[in-house]
């Protein structure tokens, strides 16, 4: 027997171990015929019902409540403990706190721009920038 005929005897028929590529679990095949797939699509369309009108009128929203900026925006993140980033040490904690502080500052600025920032009642601690003198 030649070397070529011996090698052919060891290979599965059909060109591969998964059944020769005839509907055997490929991305389109999945073991279903085209008719079965299209039938399922038609059934899914029937079950979906009437499409929703995205541009229908909606009731007006309630007025927005005034937004009070957080005094310590990093409190929640710190309450979770050290970040689970091995080898980063305190650098990760500092970086995460910086991102949270920046996000809180941007949110406060956005609320102020939209006129939604709550008026502060702190008469005990007046803003030193507001003093004239």
Describe this structure in words.
The chain has 133 residues and is mostly helical. The chain has a domain of 37 residues. Helices cover 39% and strands 0% of the residues. The longest helix is centred in the last third of the chain and has 24 residues. It is flat and about 70 Å long. The C terminus is likely disordered.
The assigned structural class equals mainly alpha
Strand and helix order: HHHH
Shape: flat
Count of β-strands: 0
Distance between the termini: 108 Å
Q: Catalogue the unreliable spans.
A: 15-26, 128-133
Average pLDDT level = 76
Proportion of β residues? under 5%
Helix content: 25-40%
Main β-sheet: number of strands, strand sense, barrel status? none
Supply the number of helical segments: 4
List the quaternary state of the chains: single chain
What's a concise summary of this model?
The chain is 39% helix and 0% strand. The chain has 133 residues and is mostly helical.
Question: Which features would summarize this protein structure in a list?
Answer:
mainly alpha, single chain, 4 helices, disordered C terminus, 133 residues
């Amino acid at each position: 027997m030649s070397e070529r005929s011996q090698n052919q005897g060891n290979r599965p028929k059909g060109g591969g171990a998964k059944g020769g590529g005839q509907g055997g679990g490929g991305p389109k095949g999945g073991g279903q015929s085209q008719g079965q797939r299209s039938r399922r699509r038609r059934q899914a369309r029937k079950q979906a019902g009437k499409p929703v009108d995205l541009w229908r009128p909606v009731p007006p929203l309630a007025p927005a409540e005034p937004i009070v900026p957080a005094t310590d925006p990093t409190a929640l993140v710190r309450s979770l403990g050290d970040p689970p980033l091995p080898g980063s040490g305190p650098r990760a904690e500092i970086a995460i706190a910086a991102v949270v502080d920046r996000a809180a500052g941007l949110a406060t600025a956005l609320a102020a721009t939209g006129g939604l920032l709550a008026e502060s009642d702190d008469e005990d601690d007046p803003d030193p920038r507001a003093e004239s003198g």
